[in-house]
Amino acid sequence: MNRKARAYCSLALLAWNSRPSTVVVVSAFQPLSTTTTRSPAVLASRNTVAGRPTCEITRRAMSTNEDTDTTVDIAGNLADVKARIRAACEAAGKDPSSVRLVAVSKTKPVPMLQQCLDAGHTIMGENYAQELVEKVGILPDTVHWHFIGGLQSDKATMLVGAFKNSTVDRLTVETVSSLKLASKLNNAVPDTDSTLLKIFVQVNTSGEDSKSGVEADECAALCQDIVAKCPKLHLQGLMTIGAPDDESCFTALAECRDAVASSLGRADLELSMGMSGDFEAAIAAGATNVRVGSTIFGARDYSTK
Predict the structure, then answer these.
(1) Neighbours of 49 (CB within 10 A)
(2) Which residues span the domain enclosing 151?
(3) Which alpha helices (H) appear in the chain, and where do they start and end?
(4) Which of 87, 235, 276, 280 is most enclosed, with most CB atoms within 10 A?
(5) Contact 88, 284 (CB under 8 A)
(6) What does the pLDDT look like over 49-91, one tens digit per residue?
(7) Are 181 and 247 in a shared domain?
(8) 40 in a structural domain
């Protein structure tokens, strides 16, 4: 964490410990040289997200150009990835337009996302709910967001609420693995919003305890329940995070999709699989949605996590 971030966190902690009626903290929504007021209650409620200090998430989401890695050629990287997707599609006999690229921008500052937008790409992926919410408030409504991280059911309302001034069809949640979470998301969609919230059901195709997702043999039943009980959601397809270098996970997801499609009488269910290291193999196995981050935005710095 750099000196600015340490100063922000220290000031926030000092403010909470002293509990004055109002406190002055460095605003996440303005340059670090300006200030705004935050009440202790608001500060406390925003203190942590998923065990990480909110100030760290905010610092990363709201970083200015001086924090941006100028050595990363985002436009060039994006063009290269899209060329590789086209080549993989051609090799598989697929229409390149049938594969969606999600540029995974987690932990990356807004100016880097803006470079991606300037290059003509508007589909972004985030892993942390608070970070996505903050970035939604800054970037234009032309961005479509994919949430691809673990989502606690008590964060569903916050996540969906970020789109209250537009429509929820700008959001796709790719990590639904229980009826409880699906129901929370469904209930969070305003009655006044005529659009549907798109979701993918996450499947644990590797059998690893460290991976989230419903078991493959339980997936069809879960999808049937979601379709029957969550009318504000649109089941777009299935998603997996396979084991490294194990392409059998892609085959397993495709087989699971076929079973779900048969049970629902749908032929349009998508497959979200493949990341920076294996998206070409995923396309060969039938992926329609690939999630690529470090190949576009550069390596991530997890030293402060």
Answers:
(1) 19
(2) 69-297
(3) 3-18, 40-45, 54-62, 74-92, 110-118, 129-136, 156-161, 179-188, 216-229, 248-264, 279-284, 294-297
(4) 235
(5) yes
(6) 444 444 444 555 555 444 566 789 999 999 999 999 999 999 9
(7) yes
(8) yes
